Here is the input.
Amino acid sequence: MINVTKTFLPDKEEYIKYVHEIWDRGYITNNGPVLQQLEQELKDYLNVDHLYFCGNGTIVLQIAIKALELKGEIITTPFSYCATSNAILWENCTPVFVDIDAQTFNIDPTLIEASITPATSAILATHVYGNPCDIEAIEVVAEKHNLKVIYDAAHAFGVTYKGKSLLSYGDISTCSFHATKVFHTIEGGALISNHPELDKKLHLLRAFGHQGDDLYLYAGINGKNSEFHAAMGLVNLPQVPNIIQARKEVFEAYDSLLNWDVLSKPLISSDIEYNYAYYPVVFPSEEMMFRVMDALREQEIIPRRYFFPSLNTLSFMPRQFACPVSEDIALRVLSLPLYVGLPYSDIERISGIINGHLSP
Here is the structure.
């Protein structure tokens, strides 16, 4: 079976070495030395000053909303994983969906201003598939209306934009280190902030809001992660350049083999060094997408409808918004298998099946 992704596993002995050290210390969580080492190495790798390693990529969104003390409405994208909008709901805010750009699949900054009301407190935008949002345009709108900006950068580890880590933009960026990501810690996530005044607050909010044994400062939450997860990150981090290169080779193979007279894909910014996080293709119709998906699955090849459905259509959203571009693309997009070690022969086979089912 060929799944849409496959977890990268580093050298087992390197990881076990850390496990032995953790075992001998008997210190397995609560901001231990391995976790602190990972945070420092991540800050060095990304060239950022303030980073906190947390339990997963969803809780960091919740902590970001809490740290910025957001209320009321948060403008966001309908074309993302449900964690983005669910975090807004969990923090008792209202997601206001703004449609996406038809070329990049990121939130369309030209539509944001029309959705701002007196209740709007922030913009929460996703760098879809690791492709940067229009950061400059979003910043102009945010500054004009005194709004905070959070970037859901779950897909964006290893991406640089204009020479800087994509994670270094916005008031806070969040990242996912789930096992399916380019860089992973089995489960995990990170908060990255450009504001020194948020540093202590983020540290406390992820650890129940208290300092020492008896000084309680915030209504925090348990967003911590363990020494074992941090150890996986330390072993994986040096492999990131090799991982990205291997994914790039798969990406370029699809580029050369698929029939672009029929298919399309999002436009990747020219100002980045990309991480090749996903390989989405868009079909002319949902019917053709299903036909291809069924043909692949008959051969035990499992792509993913990523992202589907458009989040503005979810039944539990408190308000309804029309996002025709997102709704249309969500019906026709399919992410193809992409991971380190996917053989070229399998990429050829996948591409051949797809191309063979593109007739009207």
